[in-house]
Amino acid sequence: MPLTDQQSAEIAALRAQCAETRRPTVPALEHLLYEVMPVLDHGFVRVIDYMGDDGAIVQAARVSYGRGTRRVSEDAGLIRYLMRHRHSTPFEMCEIKYHVKLPIFVARQWIRHRTANVNEYSARYSILDREFYIPAPEHLAAQSATNRQGRGAVLAGAEAEHVLDLLRADAIRSYDHYVDMLNEDDAGKPLDPARQGLARELARMNLTLNTYTQWYWKIDLHNLLHFLSLRADAHAQYEIRAYAEAMLDTVRAWVPVAYQAFLDYRLGAATLSAPMLAAVRRMLTGERVEQAGSGLNKREWAELVGVLGEA
Ligand SMILES: Cc1cc2nc3c(=O)[nH]c(=O)nc-3n(C[C@H](O)[C@H](O)[C@H](O)COP(=O)(O)OP(=O)(O)OC[C@H]3O[C@@H](n4cnc5c(N)ncnc54)[C@H](O)[C@@H]3O)c2cc1C
């Protein structure tokens, strides 16, 4: 994920400046601010700005005049209580803004989360970079035989080589045609002065979905945790999960108490339906419960076994 010299210099300039403020700041997140956290082969996540900290959650929950914090253990207990009981609005008092560079097919999944503010790089106005996501060999997997939305074993040998060659060749060919239709070189000069060149908003339509796009994405902590609960989960596609995992690191730095509560009560937790709970209660009395007679269908039973097996 190489940055241009100018991009690196802009980030360094931002990181060199400091502003005096009365607002609370979080040293661990200040340390990460503006830094590029690489994701996939050319992507990244950067924290651009944030508002609030663990104390802001407590402050809002207590509707305080001052900081609202008491003893560290009391504040942590309150945050954990709020998370446990889905009292969510105090978490909405914290906000964070990211700059994300991601393949278009990942962006399509990501944009389904409607509670963020988004501004995407305009490919009507600017030319997209010649950068495509090509999976690392360990992520080049076959279609799962059991899960229609998942992956199975990793492709190997000649098949893997063939797939990688196709992915690269198709992306390069489409990008070359994009440049051809635009009729512009890297410096913005016409490739062929006799041609007008196609509008950027049209030329982009033949680019492959592994082409990288970029956006600024701002969200409050409650909705960010909802996003992470879905996208850092094992059911999420690896590529979006890689971004969610980098963002989890930023949440840990930013609001460590809320982060731990999130791991304990959401990400690492499981929800049991009423019939599942009834089956577990019978098991706890020592009864041998089978799928037949449990009140659960085969899929639900497999999910229950999966949850109890993990525990
Ligand atoms: C593993 C996985 C597989 C998926 N597969 C598919 C698929 O095959 N096809 C597909 O189309 N999508 C798929 N999705 C996308 C999924 O259906 C959701 O659209 C996406 O996860 C966003 O979730 P959300 O609506 O809860 O999030 P957000 O949009 O962030 O919303 C957060 C919460 O705000 C509330 N909310 C936001 N907007 C509204 C609204 N307009 N009305 C009511 N409540 C609202 C809801 O409570 C919502 O849960 C998949 C997602 C995952 C994680």
Descriptive notes:
The protein has 311 residues and is an alpha+beta fold. 45% of the residues lie in helices and 13% in strands. It is built from twelve helices and seven strands. The protein has helices spanning 5-16, 27-32, 54-61, 72-84, 104-110, 157-182, 200-203, 221-231, 238-254, 256-267, 274-284, 298-310; strands at 37-39, 43-51, 95-103, 117-120, 141-143, 151-154, 212-220. Strands 1-2-3-7-4 form a five-stranded antiparallel beta sheet. A two-stranded antiparallel ribbon has the order 5-6. A hairpin with a 3-residue loop joins strand 1 (37-39) and strand 2 (43-51). Helix 4 packs parallel to helix 10 (256-267) and helix 9 packs across helix 10. The longest helix has 26 residues, at 157-182. The radius of gyration is 24 Å and the shape is flat. The structure holds flavin-adenine dinucleotide.
